[in-house]
Amino acid sequence: MINKEQVTEIVYDAICAYLDVERSELNDTSQLEDEWQLDSTEMVCVAVDMEKELGFKLRGLKFSEIETIADVISEVLRIADVLEAQERAAEVV
């Protein structure tokens, strides 16, 4: 199971790399589109980079609902929880 700290690091690393900025320039409330002009199409590129580090696909990532870095972290954690629940259910069967 991946934890919040791991997800946070992966999300920040991917966004910083894509934007070519230092970690200190961003925070959880950074507005990705309004402040950094990162639109949903570009978020797909960031998501692909995150998937490589996470080791799972971010199917169901709700790009239209993502405004801040905290939103990205929450969405990744939500997807990780769903995948974990599916794995547990498969083990029971």
Automatic annotation (TrEMBL):
Domain Carrier: 5-80
InterPro entries: ACP-like_sf, PP-bd_ACP
One Pfam match: PP-binding
Protein name: Carrier domain-containing protein
Species, as recorded: Pseudoalteromonas luteoviolacea S4060-1
